[in-house]
Amino acid sequence: MHEELWLTRIFNDYLAGPANAILNAVGQPAHNQARPWENWITMEILVLAIIVVVVAVLRSGLSTDKPGPLQHLFELIYNFLKDTTEEAGIPHGEKYVPLFGTLFIFILFANLIGIVPGFESPTMFTWVPTGLALISFAYYNYMGFRSNGFGYVKHFLGPIWWLAPLMLPIEIISHFARPMSLTIRLYANMFAGEQVTLAFLKIVPLFVPVIFMGLHVFVSFLQAYIFTLLSMIYVGGAMEHEH
């Protein structure tokens, strides 16, 4: 069981009522009514608040004549995601940058916040990667039906009609394994990185842990990119027209 973070403690001390009301309304009452807030929830809220502040600062400083460093950074991210989307087989990648950009930025911020003392990466809790994976799963199937109509089902039947009875269950299992794969990959890497950093912080408080914190930053970027890239590939495959 994870130790209650100071931010989670504040939420439980002052906002336990609203949390219990929401959980009871959806039929999922908290195991501990007095402390319904969990670390991964408060960390998600904090990440969302940070992103909102960053976007507000970015928007207030947008300029075509003298773009600032933050605008340059986000333009770089936009162009990178647009190009990667098109390389994944999705035409007009700029139409899909809002979703993929949201996934990338949220996962990146959620991963990086664990470096800050007193905080934890919400992505090291299975619920958060699972939710993100389900969003990716629902979106690429939606885009498959939107692009191909009922013909999207042909993706599950294989290239030869008489193989359909064999290919259909294999393809269904394969597709349902995708959100599990996305979840495990993100969760396992962030959990392992967090534990390694914490272990070395306890053993050697100075200098050496900086190396592992740098590694944590690298893994944070890498896992955000991999999750987003795989989502792009899934969408590109679903939108592909069968011939």
Q: Please bin the fraction of helical residues.
A: 55-70%
Mean pLDDT: 89
Q: How can the largest sheet be summarized?
A: none
Number of contiguous helices? 8
The rough form would be described as globular
User: Could you list the spans in which at least 5 consecutive residues all have pLDDT below 50?
Assistant: none
Q: Which structural category do the helix and sheet elements fall into? A: mainly alpha
Q: What is the rounded distance between the termini? A: 52 Å
Taking Cα atoms only, what radius of gyration do you get, to the nearest Å? 21 Å
Order of helices and strands: HHHHHHHH
Number of strands: 0
Number of domains: 2
Beta content: under 5%
Please provide a written account of the structure:
Helix content is 70%, strand content 0%. It has 8 helices and no strands. It folds into 2 domains: 37 residues, no CATH class; 200 residues. It is mainly alpha-helical and 243 residues long.
